[in-house]
Amino acid sequence: MSLLSAGDRVALVSPAGPALASKIDAGVRVLRSWGLEVTAPVVAPWSLPYLAGSDEARAAEFVAAWRSDVAAVFCVRGGYGCLRMTDLVPWKDLPPRVFVGSSDVTVLHAELNAVGQPTVFGPMPGTADFVGDPLAQARLRELLFEGTRSWTTGTPVVPGTARGVLTGGNAALLAASVGGPRWEPPAAGAIALLEDIGEEPYRLDRILTQLLRAGWFEPVSGIVLGSWTDCGDVSAVLTDRLSGLGVPILGEAGFGHCAGSWSLPLGVRAELDAGAGTLTLV
User: Fold this and answer.
1) Among 13, 40, 152, 157, which residue has the fewest nearby CB atoms (within 10 Å)?
2) Where in this chain does the record put each LD-carboxypeptidase C-terminal domain (predicted)?
3) What are the residues facing 53 on neighbouring strands?
4) Is 262 exposed, middle or buried (0-12, 13-18, 19+ CB in 10 A)?
């Protein structure tokens, strides 16, 4: 994955829900304090208020940003909408760029990783998880500018080691993608990253059961569990649904919708030592 340097130009895009202009402005100020030149999206109302524009408009903005003279593309927020525009993007024709996003953006990570583009699952500059969280900002900046290669975090659930390509993201979005026209299970030996927000235990059970029955976990050699914010106590569900897979599992790894979230790369090879609580790029 390429690194950023002071003076690089970056573009902000809105592929999902609309962000508040005040949040975008605050996020832009942080990115500019890193020495980046930032192009922000235009905030405009749309007939469906949970979308930042029509599918065609959001896809066009996304593609235009990738084809412009920028080093990176940042999503301003998640929410809902990325899945609606995936068929409108010529994924194989996009030039290499650093890409940052999380939550609903999980489906865009999958598309980019499938065509060989590594990405970053991290907090987005139009959200409180970025604007109001200096530690999450610092961790994202470290990954983007210094190239973090190892993380020590989490609690061992099932000890063991695994080596493979990092994949995954938001569990609900992974389940929503199952059966789509370009859906594919993870690569053989993949290490799955999973997190979510606002899913009660029975709903998380449904999400994981759907992924299990679709065969999504069959190629997976290890699992890293992030935050489960506003989901209640999901420990029993995670144990029931995942412990039978017979792979190493690291829990409470501190990425996703949580304070001080780690930013983690996707689409790159790593080694997981669940017993030691380490994830290292290889």
Assistant:
1) 152
2) 163-272
3) none
4) buried
What is the C-alpha to C-alpha distance for residues 247 and 63, in angstroms, rounded to an integer? Answer: 38
Q: Phi and psi dihedrals of 177, rounded to 5? A: -85, -15
State which H helix or E strand residue 55 sits in. helix 55-67
Query: Long-range pairs for 85-88 at CB < 8 Å and ≥24 separation?
Result: 85/15, 85/55, 85/58, 85/59, 86/111, 86/180, 86/182, 87/181, 88/55, 88/56, 88/59, 88/60
Which residues are part of the catalytic machinery? 103, 195, 257
* Nearest in space to 195 (alpha carbons), one of 169, 156, 223: 169
In the chain, the amino acid numbered 127 is: T
Site of tokens 């920028």: 70
Contact 193, 249 (CB under 8 A): no
- Phi and psi angles of residue 249, each rounded to the nearest 5 degrees, phi first: -135, 130
